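Message: I would love a firmer grasp of how sequence relates to backbone shape in proteins. Thank you; the sequence and its tokens follow:
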Amino acid sequence: MSPSNELDWQGVLFQTFCSSTNFNGMNMFSRSRRSFVSRLGVAITVGASLVLTSLPATAQRSVPVVRDAEIERYVEDVASPILKAAGLQSGVDLILVNDHRFNAFVAGRRIFLHTGALLTAETPNEIAGVLAHEAGHIAGGHQERLRQQMARAQTMAVVAMLAGIGAGVAGAAADLPGLPQAGMGIAAGGTEAARRSVLGYQRGEELTADRTAIEYLNRTKQSAAGMLKTFDRMARDLSLSGVNVDPYQSSHPMPRDRLATLETLARQSPYYAVQDPAALRTRHDLVRAKIAAYTGGANAVRRVFRGQSNNLGAVYGETIATYLNGSSRDALARVERLIAAQPSNPYFHELKGEILLKANNPAAAANAYAKAIQLAPGNPGLLQIGYGRALLATGQPEHVRKAAEILKAALTREPEYAAGYRFLAQAYGQLGDVGAAELATAEGHYHSGQVREAKIFAARAQQRLQRGTPNWLRAQDIINARN
């Protein structure tokens, strides 16, 4: 989509089934599939905690999805009270998209958040405002109503087209030279009217979601100042771009209009002056640092934390950049200092494990991962996959057996994490269980969207598996899967 966010009228049929809403006027649509899957191959940082995969999208486009335990946990913690306030405590997925733009959108009951939003936002409160806006779209049923509006618009366009064709036929039959051209005008005008009706509807829903977002922020005793800051930034960016946008050709209101509409409501809130907790601000800085380091290296980290070299986020980002592009010894010394500053931070121990793996010390890496899992909240499947990978790298039979157990358990919690199946297949292969290795390989292909390859390996697995066992039946499910 163009920065001016003109509606892709040619793609209107797709939008009827899968609408997206966004915060800054740049749309991205995800393709619906039999399930939410990740397709490997776009950009994978093998062995690093930040992993990029790709979610298939419409018209051969794809949405590059980021998987990272630390970032996901942070976004979940920011979103949780907002989703609860919106009555969306369960059934909403939060998905990170590797895109530098400040953007978010919804599809079904999934909220997609660009890493660019996390990187650009200076406070957690700005992200809370974005998530509250998107929650407003889901809770308000805006996507379903947009589908209905699209259906009405399509009817308008079809009626106008038929009327235009009728005028053209009548003109030809009556030998009136001006009437066919008039028919064309009727058809074109009807289509344009339908398009504008949908755009106007979308603008109204965006304003509704803005107001709903402030309501959710008030319910959670958070400030709406972050939303105002976001719209002000967007307005300045649009002004500096020099692009003249026709507000009636956009699916979103202009940022200045949104700012003017919301400012009074935001400032009237008794929570307008509330600040983010210090611990949450620190986590926000760490997340920004990680994204900057992985996507732009040390220079990007320095740009984000200009004049804040002692900020823990800046130190974290420099450590990651050193791990990625410098000396493992230097990176290890840096991460030890981070751990000394925050001994209970599981993601510092995770990074230590990554550095030790790169330094070819898998046994020590496994210990670091075990510590990270011990400290991490919840049941961190991604960290467990890293732990299993480190155990596997030791090559010791008892560690390989443990790795297989851990990887299998982790993949029950992260069944669509395709890279994990490669490690599981390696573990089974080293243990001599070829049938299970073939099945794990089939699973990896299946969850990568490579169904043809998945079926080939599933058929090979069946030749080595006992008929009727759970593994044999799972292989049959893959064989029977629709392409």
Notes: The radius of gyration is 26 Å.
